[in-house]
């Protein structure tokens, strides 16, 4: 059989694709404003990866230490190694207190202080008064803040009756005859049936793509589906060379050990027992920003001071903390350590090593959540009908390195903002459903996976994915150089060739996870190319992009955002916004912690 | 290591059947989890279906019946399971394919207890205050991951999944009943005070035995009954 261009079609005021914290906050807003929306999620909503966020969400509430949004803004810009857009960071930090209180009103069970207010813990890169004493800015629900937020947002969506398409996979964006994005083709994973969801407003909230690296903290669903869709639709991805390696993943396995562990007083030690962060960040030590701590751990291990028989990890020690701190504020970490390492951190240190955690880059957007792409004359213009929020988007509030606690903030701030943008547009121009959509490209893609093996090839989607992850880990890890990245780029071309030839073996329709993995792999491979191409070109070290052959930051040539287009792996650049609206510009300067 | 896995594809099979898979011990390590083994088996048999996502026990996707007990595959160590491992879908709900069940009834029951905070409206300049003692009452309830291991181990839920809320939904109900910020306390209790809701629980305690997060739904239901006796 092959697919032709007749699929059942449904129409909506707006589609939200992805049911993590960003999509869920947006859906809540749009439903509250009375719009007919569809929330499309490839898993049941509370399985989305926001659920795994641990440490907390930043806001200058000042419940524990004096705080101001301006200080939060300064720390975020410095943390971003000055690549973050200052107008966007300013907006996010200004909104933070209100949006966190709103989460509290939605029911999030934040840990509390004795005075009844929300508990705030210390996190990396946080300061009072523009770089002075440590701030306590991260609002926490024990070490399960993401779970608490995601479930509360889902619960509020239940209250309002949001329409969910659970276990539907978004395959591709669809354009109308004017070339405008006007719908999406989705697959019902339960029965393999495809459907066109037509709408003038498509909001992508599809999360990260950490599965492109072998060792990662990400869920297996984090395959960058929205990014692949955007590239295939001809729009760019921004700053894809910047991937955060979280300093403390469970060694060899990757599960996240929250920064909250260090925020509550955890120490990092090498095989000699040295608390080595004193060397790398004399003032704030373990609470330097994540790129700094991750590099420090990698250097300790590279120089032979790692622990264990293979000297391949360091120790994260909290045994000196009072038991009640661990049981009340870090219960999830204790559970992960017991389950995956067989140790109890009350007594024994946790084995940790940097692991891929977060994608700073993504689909370029403006503060309103609209996707931005250069027009024929190179001017950055909103793409009509297309929006992106959360980890899949790059607005850019994280620049070259995200601060812990800013991701949960990013998703709710821009989730609400993008929904309000769509709401305003719908008020002015109600959705029209009299549209013809071009399905030719997506039908080719669907038909491609109906191809059956006519050779004796043993290759498989799973094997290609594993090889891709190894290539990326080797070629674009914590430390990078021209030769290994060039090699990775060439190996990716081999991966591309294998992807074009491989066949699946299961052609059933009900929960066909092999076909789903094939669609996901197509996205992951595009992300691999975007990452390596962008990283090869950037000849400097900035934030998480750390090159042994260009060790310094180069503001003169590289204080700019990368834009990657899939066609011929083309790159263009655009300037960083250094002009916040209500605060004086923060001038780039050397970053010292 | 031998795995006897329940297979069912509604497009081709009349009924579920067992299929045996073998994994060489060299493919596994001392600290492998059941989910790692399933991924390896799927390399042999790509059509094998099971849900999974976070791989660390927080998303609740991969509930399944393992040697007769409901568990999450990603946090179940192979070393505790013996040489022959029997895997079946969670019991009591329709099977969609292989180890994947249709959880719609489970979710419907969850939604029916109104699992959302209804607090006094407050401006965004303020947070609702809650003492650490009040907040501590939510511990053991808010951490539920909706994996369904408890409700699908409950004979009362097996019997009436369309009527009885089941332990997961009642655990969620109790979480809002005891939340000091909630203003629907009495309304919630009245709705739960029914022979098909709280009082359908017979305290068999399979739910508490099954919970992979170490929560105690059985105790939460007892507490609900006790609050009802005192306050209604």
How would you explain this protein's 3D organization?
The complex is a heterodimer of chains A (593) and B (232). Chain A is of the alpha/beta class. In chain A, 34% of the residues lie in helices and 20% in strands. Chain A has a domain at 246-356: Flavocytochrome C3, Chain A, domain 1 (Alpha-Beta Complex). Chain A has 16 helices and 25 strands. In chain A, the strands form 7 sheets. Chain A has a 6-stranded mixed beta sheet, covered by helices on one side. Chain A has a 5-stranded mixed beta sheet with strand order 1-10-9-8-21. A 4-stranded antiparallel beta sheet of chain A has the order 13-16-15-14. In chain A, a hairpin with a 4-residue loop joins strand 9 and strand 10. In chain A, helix 13 (461-475) runs antiparallel to helix 14 (482-501). In chain A, 62% of the residues are buried. In chain B, helix 2 (104-112) runs parallel beside helix 5 (166-177), helix 5 runs antiparallel to helix 6 (185-192) and helix 5 packs across helix 8. In chain B, the strands form 2 sheets. Chain B has a 5-stranded mixed beta sheet with strand order 2-1-5-3-4, with no helix packed on it. Chain B has helices at residues 34-44, 104-112, 132-136, 155-159, 166-177, 185-192, 206-210, 217-231, and strands at residues 2-7, 17-22, 63-66, 69-72, 84-88, 95-97, 100-101. By secondary structure, chain B is α+β, with helices and mostly antiparallel strands. Chain B is 30% helix and 13% strand. The radius of gyration of chain B is 20 Å and the shape is elongated. Chain B is built from 8 helices and 7 strands. Chains A and B meet through helix 3, helix 4 and helix 10 of A and helix 3 of B.
